[in-house]
Amino acid sequence: MHLYGTQSINENGHLTIGGVDATELAKEYGTPLFVYDLELIRRRARGFIETFHKLGVKAEVAYASKAFSCIAIYQLAHEENLSLDVVSGGELYTAIQSGFPAERIHFHGNNKSYAELVLAFDSNIGCIVVDNFYEIQLLKEISETKKQSMRILLRVTPGVEAHTHDFITTGQADSKFGFDLNSGQADQAFNEVRDHEYLQLLGLHCHIGSQIFETDGFSLAAKKLMKKISEWKDQFKFECTVLNLGGGFGIRYTEEDKPLEPQDYVEEMIKTVQSHAVELNLSMPEIWIEPGRSLVGDAGTTLYTIGSHKTVPNIREYIAVDGGMSDNIRPALYDAKYEAVIANKVNEQKTSTYTVAGKLCESGDKLIIDAPLQQAGSGDILAVFCTGAYGYSMASNYNRIPRPAVVFVESGQHQLAINRESYENIVQNDLPLSLKKGE
């Protein structure tokens, strides 16, 4: 059995995380429950940052917070000297409320609203990653009205297809994100902002996909961006100070996944950028990256209580848990695979095979199909590994199910990071019918 981070098995045969018995966490906080291993998150963050420092390259490592957003995780990111990548007004507002330094916030998104951009200016954030021509016009209008400067990057699609799932590949030409590098769109965008009084163009950004296990795609994307920067330097004397190569670094979900260590991705990026800087006679830019899943994905474990059990003779055995696609949509959306154990029976042999079903009123609400597990009974605690990215952040109230609580654990301590929603929370924005029948 593969254990992640600080996970271990205690003398009672129970799964522990951060030195805390998972069954005790389930008893105290209830289930479903997201449990985050802070030591593992810190280790991942330091792996990226220290590699840049060791190789003497200026960099910013920005936590891609769409993976999991809340005040406490932003405060942890600040403690670990990360920057922050936000993609909405809600994430930006949460970051500001957490006390995160605004100058280290980068704002992404393919359809930022006028109000969201005004919030970014009012908050004096560090950078806006510009995605389209409409946004350029909004930025010009806001910056000129406020007479306020803003640092920007142009997001481009370099035409690199990463080896990943079709739905999470964003660097190819046919993408809703960014300016196409190969058709002249990026050149047009560059010309629209390069001499603007208030928009300070730092350089280029790309993101080639997610859950990537090789470095080849990053190297190819970096090569294409450096070539474009060289063209702009030759034609317009443009000096690129920042090259943002995005994120998408893969993690282990199942034994089929073979991710690299953080330093492996970083070292290959640096090597590629440095070699092309020398070849093209360019100054070495500051390198920015945006790990999200690779910081929090395998640091998260979801605990469920097992309820009903159904046998379909000669076909399948089901066990049902008290959550499902309302707290983890990825299996239904991406056919994502997970591994699990029964947290109170970890030392027992995995003698049974179950399909883990959620409690949502959907036949597709299955978290794991044909999971090898210990013999399961009602009331047992199921621990599903590697749910720290895009679990809680994509959770919903479908079937009016409240979102779970989130707990942080570290060095034998635990604390609530997000309260469990109540039924009262579910109806708090509902209004009674006021229209009169027949009127």
TrEMBL record:
Cross-referenced InterPro entries: Ala_racemase/Decarboxylase_C (IPR009006), DAP_deCOOHase_LysA (IPR002986), De-COase2_C (IPR022643), De-COase2_N (IPR022644), Orn/DAP/Arg_de-COase (IPR000183), PLP-binding_barrel (IPR029066)
Alphabetic keyword roster: Amino-acid biosynthesis, Decarboxylase, Lyase, Lysine biosynthesis, Pyridoxal phosphate
Active site per database record: C361 (proton donor)
Binding site for pyridoxal 5'-phosphate: G248, E290, P291, G292, R293, Y390
Pfam families registered for this protein in UniProt: Orn_Arg_deC_N, Orn_DAP_Arg_deC
Pathway(s) of this molecule: Amino-acid biosynthesis; L-lysine biosynthesis via DAP pathway; L-lysine from DL-2,6-diaminopimelate: step 1/1
Cofactor dependence: pyridoxal 5'-phosphate
GO molecular function, one term: diaminopimelate decarboxylase activity
Domain of life per record: Bacteria
Residue ranges constituting the Orn/DAP/Arg decarboxylase 2 C-terminal domain according to the UniProt record: 34-388
Phosphoprotein in keyword set: no
Domain Orn/DAP/Arg decarboxylase 2 N-terminal positions: 41-296
GO term, biological process aspect, one: lysine biosynthetic process via diaminopimelate
Matching CDD domains: PLPDE_III_DapDC
Annotated EC: 4.1.1.20
Record's catalysed reaction(s): meso-2,6-diaminopimelate + H(+) = L-lysine + CO2
Binding site for substrate: R293, R330, Y334, E362, Y390
Sites of N6-(pyridoxal phosphate)lysine modification: K66
Similarity remark: Belongs to the Orn/Lys/Arg decarboxylase class-II family. LysA subfamily.
Protein role: Specifically catalyzes the decarboxylation of meso-diaminopimelate (meso-DAP) to L-lysine.
Quaternary organization: Homodimer.
The protein, known as: Diaminopimelate decarboxylase
Species name: Lysinibacillus telephonicus
